[in-house]
Amino acid sequence: MHKVERTGSQENEVSEQLELPAQVLKMSEIIFKKIDEESRGTIPIRCLPQALRLLDQAPTESDLKTIAANNKSDSNDGTGQISFKTFSQILRQTYLPRDDHFNKLFNAFAELDEKDKGTLSADYLESLLLTKGDVLTKKQIKVIMKESKTGADGLFAYMGFTARLIDGYSKLSRTTKTENQKATKE
């Protein structure tokens, strides 16, 4: 197994992407309006993680802290509200298409795979997930290991898991989007 290679220009292109796909922009408007229940043209900044996840984005806690620090409230009244314009700017700065999410996660696993076999020791992975980055609980790790179909040999095959995770998250999000679209039309 090898890391999925991307050129420096591809990485810059993603991080500096100015235009969102039309479908994402349309969905972002629908989701924003749904969260803006009082039609004030703003949403609470605390709802930003939910809105981003509904758009198939997976910001880490660290990402969210950085976003919050860089994007204070649009109002000076201390209500913590952001406009659609600010929301769109945040989305443009953080948006990753499905394939880039896959590559990012796959490459993280591949970096840990010293033998380059597409597997990691489940015990090693559990230890990392309990202690590094956005730390998970033992219960969350148990679900991941069950979903990953960790083998009797104690090895976690990350290629298939990464695809299932990204595609499953996307399907869940699409279901929610469809429900939001129906609710918006009513």
TrEMBL record:
This is EF-hand domain-containing protein. GO terms for cellular component: myosin II complex. Keywords: Repeat. InterPro entries: CALM/Myosin/TropC-like, EF-hand-dom_pair. It comes from Mesocestoides corti. The keyword Repeat applies.
